[in-house]
Amino acid sequence: MDHELRAALSDFRKGKPILLFDSPTREGEVDMVVSAVHAAPGMVALARRDAGGLICVALSSEAGGKLGLPYADDILRRAGMGGLTIRKTPYGDSTAFSAWVNSRKTFTGITDADRSETIREIADIAVNPIKREFAGKFYSPGHVPLLVARPEGKRRGHTELSIKLAKMAGMPPAVMVCEMLDSKTHGALALADAGKYAKKNGLHLICGEELESAEL
Predict the structure, then answer these.
(1) Within 10 Å of residue 36's Cβ, how many Cβ atoms?
(2) 31 is catalytic
(3) How many domains does the chain contain in total?
């Protein structure tokens, strides 16, 4: 394991965001990721303001399975709306989307404070995922999309990469992720610009290939 990855893991444990680039042959995008444990309201605001994409929570396939979380495309197929689903996205993978939830402690669920409450509660339940407790703590539809990692080897997205990062750091298998967008080009933030942002803000930028090759 190289120095950059070791330093990134240390920062992740401390609650600092990590910038995670998937692959030039996949989405070619950078996500801002932070342990869901550390998703305080200010961190949610940072992701909303500086990253700008959809603020989601990635969960391990193990946690998702124990909680009984279905994938969104399976929900649609069972509802007779399979025509809305897609087997493969333009970037090559199936999606990881599951349910969208709010904590039952929240009001509207959309404020930074409300989303923080939801995300941190997800982190708590991911440590000891019990299906009957999940329904008691959350309701759906809500404002926090859940992403469930596909079983190992079936998908190579930010969801799976961020969960590996959490496992390597010894943190709960729940990670807040948010795509970094560019308000000037109206596309994804270029890798070079993400590097500049990381340098300016004292953050680590790591690549998916580096993370995939590292041993747990």
Answers:
(1) 29
(2) yes
(3) 1
